[in-house]
Amino acid sequence: MASSTSPLVIFDEFSKLRILDPVQFETSEKLKEECKDFTQRVSNFNEIVEMFLKMMEEKAEQIESEKLKAIGLRNRAEQQMENRKGTQKQLQSLIKERQAELDRLTVQVDSLVKVQHEQEALIDSLSSK
Amino acid sequence: MKLKIHQDKSNKHADIVTSVGWTSNNELYSFGDDQKIFRWSGDGDSLGQVTTTLFDAGQSGVDVYITEMHWFPVPPGKGGQTAAEVFAAGATDGKYYLCTKAGRVEKVVEAHKGALLCLRWNNEGSALITAGEDGHVKIWSRSGMLRSVLVQIGYPIYSLSWSPDNDQVLFTNGRNLIIKSLQPASKPNQWKGHDGIILKVDWNLVNGLILSAGEDRKYKVWDSFGRQLYSSNPHDHPITSISWNPSGDLFAVGSYNSLRVCDKLGWSVAMEKLNSGSIFNISWTPDGTQMACAGGSGAVVFAHVINRRYEWKNHEVTLLDDHTIHVHDAVNGSTENLDFRDRVVKVSLGFGYLVVATSSQCHVYSERNWNTPAIVDLTNNGRVTCIQQCPEYFVLVDTVTGIQIFSYEGRLASSPKYAGLRAECVTPQTISISGDVLAVKDKADEKTIYIFESASGRPLGNGTIKHTADIAEIGLNQCASTVGRQLVLVDKNRNMYITPLVKPDLKKLGTMVETFAWNADTDLLVAMMDYKFVVWYYPNVVFIDEDIAPLTKFEKDGSNFGKNAQIVNFFGTQCTLRRADGALVTVSNITPLPGLLQEHTRKKQWEEAIRLCRYVNIKELWACLAAMAIHGQDLHTAEVAYAAIDEIAKVQYITYVRDIPIAEARAAELALLRRRPSEAENILLSANLVYRAIRMWIGLFNWERALELAIKYKTHVDTVLYFRDKYLKAVGRRETNRKFVQYGQSVQVDWAKIQAKIAMEEESDRQRSTTR
């Protein structure tokens, strides 16, 4: 509608030939500027997002490894309990073994003490006569 | 005792080690599921891998995994070295492989369907037995030819073992154990052994005891009849291997990460924790000083038994390791360390001497001098299996030279020989030496004992003593001279007998005897008999007067020693026993008086002997004296002693004997008192006292012998007939003996004549005594 009503060629205030209406021209110029600015900002944002993603990934990796580490440690701790049980069992059987030996030696000592008493009694009875 | 463990830090094998075995020159071969064979030195150092074609042998594309290997045994009497050494290895493909030491496969034999699980050469190496998952037991010849299929059962057989005499085979059947004789159509002896599957069995060549180990985490000891002698408490893990020491005094038990060594009575001597996984196989070196274990983690573990202790009076000897011995004198507190270049194989301490046998030499130390031993070189690679001592000599049994008797200066006194000696089967229980005699039990015929003169090595008398049952233990007394030398034996039925070596005559001393020992200094005998501790003050009494034999014994309740106690030693007045749980218990105050009395009577100091008895005044001693006096033919002492123990009949008899004017007749009467009429007859006849001999038989109602003598010497036939007739009338019976009927018809019996003859005989007796 506007094209039909407005003239085809226009001179602006600097006497330059214009096809577009100066006002429109001005707005389009402005739009162009704004678009440029927008793309700039979008790419900026993109960069920032990329950086952020990278950071996130790094962190994730770190977290993952820490997590694994933690699991390992936890497993190890749990294992330790088992190990301890095992060692405890081993030590217990060793104790049993030693106890048996101790019992044997106690019996031997007892019998030898008895022998000693008997010998002393014999010596006494012989020396008193 | 302790175990010294040697294990490489890193495992050579990458997988389970399934089997280990020692060669005769002390190298170990180990077989792993990584399909490798490694060779190890006796000190536990790896000598590298054996290149072998064994694992290429499965051409069918089936991998070969060895389940068990067994070296071909050294034939008896051949000693250490044999030219070609081979082993048999059974594999999971059901075949067994005969391989040389270098690893070359000589023969592959298809044996079983499924895996071959176990195999064993017999003790002589004349046959191989295999068993597998298919439940068959097969016997093969030395060269790998099938002889017979002994058994077919529906259960995999995990382990088997030969009997000591190679006549029977023991094998597992699930929870049961089976003993099967090689004779066809013989009934197998089967019994339940464990509450879980039985994994390993072993049957010892020397002591004939059986071991079994199972998944019920227990191990058990059985005798050859299947009677249980010991059962362990359940352990933490299944017992995966068990193995006898070749000398049969110890056995090793392997389980997950643990190894223990036990006495043959079952009590645990030492235990060690390992880092080896389950131990699947244990192999002892032939000398029994070391063992190797095959670990489930691929480890090969070497274990030494160290800290063996020996005691004698005030000396204490400890084997620190296989090259060092520590000697401690408890009286003056001095200690010595003895070092040896070679491995110490056997040690014996006694009578003031320490005898140490290494693999190449024998060192004899005196308690007075620990610096300069007498050294005997043991040449030709023999292995000493037994050392036995007496005050004058020691005897050394080795696998090549056999039995050798040495003096303590190291001089060879003699080397007795007999056919069929098996040195590895000689134990301190089956050989006994005294100053003049050596006695050895035969292995081939267990009823026989060989006796030799120690000094010359010649057989004594006819050289053997035979018994009616298999003999388990023997022992010689240490004190008396050759005439009084006696042998005590315990047979398999645990009956104890005593016999003099000159003119063997076995007399039973007791039943249910668990163990016995002679005193080292005097002729005292102790035994554990049916939970009683029994001391015989004068064992000879059974040959003299059995009536008073029970009186010369001392019995004491021995229930605190438990079952199966073993006497360790018996010196002076002290006897040390080892209980079945391994504790040493000492019994002291065994009276020294019988020893003193024996000493007096040996020197014929009868007065002193009587005085001693009067002073102590106990019945046992009087009874001993009575027997000793009869033995020494001293009638006065005998009379006093019998009177003291209220044996009136004996006293009267002795007074009667004392009044006999003729010495030979007195001796004969004493022989009668000892219940030896035939000996008495011999004495009388050799002294030409025929009438007395005849009267003796009449007195014993042995009419036939009396008549025989009368006829033989053509005298007093009528006397015999007269007394026979009188006797028959008294008991109211008729003559049925044909001989007497015959002579009764032909000979006239006239009482007056007989009386005259008897009077004449008595007169001649009197004359005889006066003319002397």
From TrEMBL, chain A:
Q: Give the signal peptide, or none.
A: none
**InterPro entries for this protein:** FT20
UniProt subcellular location: Cell projection, Cilium
Any Gene Ontology CC annotation = ciliary basal body
Q: Name one GO biological process term.
A: cilium assembly
Coiled-coil region? 60-108
Alphabetized, the UniProt keywords read: Cell projection, Coiled coil
Carries keyword NADP? no
Protein name (database record): Intraflagellar transport protein 20
Output the lineage of the source organism: Eukaryota, Fungi, Fungi incertae sedis, Chytridiomycota, Chytridiomycota incertae sedis
Automatic annotation (TrEMBL), chain B:
Q: Name one GO biological process term.
A: cilium assembly
* Gene Ontology CC entries for this record: cilium; intraciliary transport particle B
The listed locations are: Cell projection, Cilium
Q: Which residue intervals define the domain IFT80 second beta-propeller in the entry?
A: 308-588
Q: Sorted alphabetically, which SMART domains does this protein's record hold?
A: WD40
Instruction: Indicate yes or no for the key word Transferase.
Output: no
* First and last residues of every WD repeat: 109-141, 191-223
PROSITE patterns referenced in this protein's UniProt entry, alphabetically: WD_REPEATS_2 (PS50082), WD_REPEATS_REGION (PS50294)
Pfam families per record = Beta-prop_IFT80_2nd, TPR_IFT80_172, WD40
Keyword annotations of the record: Cell projection, Cilium, WD repeat
Q: Which residues form the IFT80/172/WDR35 TPR domain?
A: 621-767
Q: What is this protein called?
A: Uncharacterized protein
